[in-house]
Design brief:
It comes from Wenyingzhuangia marina. This is chorismate mutase. It holds the Pfam family DAHP_synth_1. Residues 266-357 form the Chorismate mutase domain. The protein is α/β, with parallel strands linked by helices. The protein folds into two domains: 5-256, Alpha-Beta Barrel (TIM Barrel); 267-358, Up-down Bundle (Chorismate Mutase Domain, subunit A), CATH 1.20.59.10. It has 14 helices and eight strands. It has helices spanning 9-12, 31-41, 71-81, 92-100, 110-113, 116-126, 143-155, 183-191, 201-205, 211-220, 247-256, 266-307, 314-330, 335-358, and strands at 20-24, 46-50, 84-88, 105-108, 132-136, 161-165, 197-199, 225-229. It has an eight-stranded parallel β-barrel with strand order 1-2-3-4-5-6-7-8, surrounded by five helices. The radius of gyration is 24 Å and the shape is elongated. It starts with 8 loop residues before the first helix and ends with a helix. The protein binds prephenic acid. Residues 297, 300, 312-313, 316-317, 320, 346, 349-350, 353 line the site of prephenic acid.
Length: 360
C-alpha cells in the first residue's frame, strides 16, 4: 500500500473546520442511556456517535456488551440527531449485523488488530464496502502489524480507511493505562501522511484527568481527530467507568483545545528556518560525537578480544547509566529520555564490539 491523497477523501468530504470528534459511551447499556448521551452531543463538535455493542473483556465474567439489541438504538441516534454512528466489530457475525443496521463507521479493536487471521476474516466480510473502517493499533507496539491490518482492508477494496491510536500495553506500571509511544503514530504519519489518524485519549489515560493533555498532544502532532468516551453518569457506567467523561466536560475540553496551523508561513517561517539551521549544526555535532565515542568503544573491543574479556560489563554500564541520568537531570532532561538514548548507544557499542571479538 502506498500513501495516496484518496485515503483522506472521506474525511475531507465531511468539510469540518475542526478536528473530527467521535464520542459516546464505552458501552451501549440501555436505549434510554444511548439516546440521552446522543442528544447531549448533538449540538457540539461531535460528528460521530460511538458505542461499544460487543465488548472484548480481558477475563470472562465481565460485562461483554448488550450485543445486537443495541443496533436499532444506534439507528434511532442517527434519525433523531443526525450524528453518524460507529461500533467495534471483531468477527464476521458482527460485521454482518453492523452492515445490516447501516452503521456508518466500523472499527477494529486492538485485540483484533493483533491477530492477522481475525483481521483477514473481517476484511473478507467487509470486501468492497464504502463504509468508513478504522483500525486501532495492536496492543503491542508493532507498527508493521498495525499497517498490516490497514493493508488487509485496503486489499479487500476498502478505500475509506483510517487508524486509531489508543496506546500500547506495557508490563511496567506507568501513569497510563496504555502508553502512548508517540513515536509509532509519528512514524505511521511519516509513511502515510494522508491516512487519517484519530487519537483515543480515553484508552491511553484510563482515567478522566489526563484526557485534555493527551488530546492536546495529539492535535499538536497533527492528528485528524479524537475519540473520547462520554457518558451521562460516568461513575455508573457498566464498563470503563474511570475513563468516561460527561458530554458537558467534553464540550469544555473541546473549547480549551488549541488547534494549531500545520505549517508556518512568512515571518514565522523565516524565524523557524533560522532555528532549524541551528538544529542542523547541533545534529551534526551529535553525530560526530557519537562516531568519536564509537571509535573508543572499538578500541576497547580490540583489548577485550586480545585479553578474552566479555563484551558486556554490567557494573560499568550500570555506572554510566546512573551518572548520565544524574547529569541529564541537571540539564532538564528526563530520566526516560536519557535512558533510551544511552541504551541505544550502549547497544550499538555492544554490536560493534561483538563484531570485533567474533572476527577471525
Ligand atoms: O567499558 C567498557 O567495557 C565498554 O566496552 C564500553 C561500554 C559503553 O559503550 O559504554 C560498552 C560495553 C559495556 O557493557 C560497558 C560500556
Amino acid at each position: 500500500m502506498e500513501n495516496k491523497k484518496e485515503l483522506r477523501t472521506w474525511l475531507d468530504d465531511m468539510k469540518l473546520d475542526h478536528p473530527l470528534v467521535i464520542a459516546g459511551p464505552c458501552s451501549a447499556e440501555t436505549e434510554e442511556q444511548v439516546l440521552k448521551i446522543a442528544h447531549e452531543l448533538k449540538d457540539t463538535d461531535v460528528t460521530v456517535f460511538r458505542a461499544g455493542v460487543w465488548k472484548p473483556r480481558t477475563r470472562p465474567g465481565g460485562f461483554e456488551g448488550v450485543g445486537a439489541v443495541a443496533l436499532p438504538w444506534l439507528k434511532k441516534v442517527k434519525e433523531q440527531t443526525g450524528l453518524l454512528t460507529a461500533v467495534e466489530v471483531a468477527n464476521v457475525a458482527h460485521v454482518k449485523l453492523a452492515l445490516e443496521a447501516d452503521v456508518d463507521i466500523l472499527w477494529l479493536g486492538a485485540r483484533t488488530t493483533v491477530n492477522p487471521f481475525a483481521v483477514q476474516e473481517v476484511a473478507d466480510a467487509l470486501e468492497g464496502t464504502d463504509k468508513i473502517i478504522l483500525i486501532k493499533n495492536p496492543i503491542n507496539p508493532d507498527l508493521a502489524l498495525w499497517l498490516g491490518g490497514v493493508e488487509r482492508l485496503y486489499k479487500a477494496n476498502i478505500k475509506n480507511l483510517g487508524v486509531i491510536h489508543r496506546g500500547f500495553s506495557s508490563y511496567k506500571k506507568t501513569r497510563y493505562r496504555n502508553v502512548p509511544q508517540w513515536q509509532l503514530p509519528i512514524e505511521l504519519k511519516r509513511q502515510f501522511p494522508d491516512l487519517p489518524i484519530i487519537n483515543d485519549p480515553s484508552h491511553i489515560c484510563g482515567n478522566r484527568t489526563g484526557i485534555q493533555e493527551i488530546s492536546q498532544i495529539a492535535l499538536d502532532l497533527n492528528f485528524e481527530g479524537l475519540m473520547i468516551e462520554t457518558h451521562i453518569t460516568p461513575d455508573d457506567a457498566w464498563s470503563d467507568a474511570a475513563q468516561q467523561i460527561t458530554p458537558a466536560r467534553l464540550v469544555e475540553i473541546m473549547n480549551d483545545l488549541k488547534v494549531r496551523k500545520p505549517k508556518a508561513e512568512g515571518e514565522t517561517l523565516d524565524q523557524l528556518q533560522q532555528l532549524r539551521a541551528e538544529i542542523d549544526v547541533i545534529d551534526n555535532h551529535i553525530i560526530d560525537t557519537l562516531a568519536e565515542r564509537m571509535k573508543v568503544a572499538v578500541q576497547i573491543g580490540e583489548v577485550k578480544k586480545s585479553k578474552n574479556i566479555s563484551v558486556l560489563q554490567d557494573a560499568r554500564w550500570g555506572e554510566i547509566l546512573q551518572n548520565m541520568v544524574a547529569v541529564g537531570e541537571k540539564s532538564g532532561l528526563s530520566q526516560d529520555f536519557i535512558e533510551s538514548v544511552f541504551k541505544a548507544i550502549h547497544q550499538e557499542s555492544i554490536n560493534k564490539q561483538e563484531e570485533i571479538v567474533t572476527s577471525k
